[in-house]
Task: structure prediction
Amino acid sequence: MISVYKRKRLEFITVIYWFLLVYIIAALVWWFIALEKQNFAVFDSRVQQLNEHSVSYQDEYHNILEERKRKTSQYIGEGTTFLLLILLGALFVYRATRKQLMLSKQQQNFMMAVTHELKTPIAVIQLNLETLEKRRLDEEKQLRLINATLQETGRLNELATNILVTSQLESGSYQPDKEKINLSGLIDEAVSDFSRRYPQRTISKMGDPGLYVTGEALLLQLLVNNLLDNALKYSPPETAVGISVEKQHDKVFMKVYDEGVGIPDDEKKKVFEKFYRSGSETTRKTKGTGLGLYLCKRIAESHNAKIRITDNQPSGSIFTVEFKTRA
Result:
């Protein structure tokens, strides 16, 4: 009921807006026509007052005609300027309103996604704990339930961290404590962690060992985790996911590969926008909040790094993060 009311209210406001815009333009046209009529009336009146037999008649008539033309040019110039300002203002209001509506819709989708992402692990954790409390299970089953509970707790922790860090980065309150970080070792830990969490998936790590970059461990860990999580989410379970790290001259390149459906060229930049999720049916059915890749971009920017997407062959995507090893 509330959404219907808001939609009806928005439709009413939109109709009023366009009505006022048309009214203002019509008033501007009427103003121009009225001034032109007055201009011609003044011209005719002054011409009638001239003495046709006067020696200076032609010069006086020419001066009156030139003045009428100048007035017409003045009205056209002023009217055109006002019309352009009105249209620019209308375009600005339209774009701002459209952007606000899109942001509102994205925020609503985000809240729904976050609610779902929170309820699922909480429900699993509650069920597992109730099972452990009410039933006497053998040690192997207990360990499986405890492991599943720890995994869901990890999901909750990652979600909360993503939301918190995103908020802090946007507000400027997060002050990273940068130092030399072993990026290769950090990636090894991430691959090991994801392999435990997703034993049915193939996750491989390639590249050079012992590569260091300047940054903060927490943010870089979030960067790696979100890219790996994104690759696992948007690729079929039977396909492999890979991550590589290598040094070329004074730059370190980290790449995350997947063999999913890929990302269309017109969406390669949009996926880094806040709350944005691809419009394909595959991604709509996949759980997510639309914050992961946005956070990746913010983290990369905070480390003076670049992040981009290219196509993997024969299918899928490659996310590349380019770090500078020196300023």
In short: The CA atoms of residues 36 and 72 lie 7 Å apart. The chain has a mean pLDDT of 84. The chain has two domains: 2-108, 179-324.
